[in-house]
Amino acid sequence: MTPMTNTSVSSQRRAPRRRQRGLTLIEILVVVTILGLIAGIVGITVANQLEDAKIDTASVQIKNIGDALELYKIKFNRYPKTAEGLQMLVKPPKGKKPLMESVPKDPWDGDYIFVSPGTHNPSKFDLQSKGPDNVADTEDDVKNW
Length: 145
Fold this sequence. Notes:
The protein is 41% helix and 6% strand. By secondary structure, it is mainly alpha-helical. The radius of gyration is 35 Å and the shape is rod-shaped.
């Protein structure tokens, strides 16, 4: 038997190198860009849905407050005056039972505007939220007329 040298043993043990497959920088950048675009589209869609939900919430709250005001009229034969405000639904006169536990704020954390008798509903009342821009009498207001 012939003795083998160290170099011949190590060369026999080496397997042929396989090319390792990895992602190039360009491929990674393309994937990150695509993911960023998708996240941006989803974010915009979610934000729009959230704003629509706030508008729907304001409409429902205006209807509920309006229903409570109608009950107030049945009980007291009149709507609260503008100066009395919506708090009359929480603390009605003559120690009567409240018609609402509390008057909610609109979804943008503003107070509802109550006018009685109403300018737009002269025989009833006007009720509105200032909407997302928090400015009264603009296009984005939520109203009962």
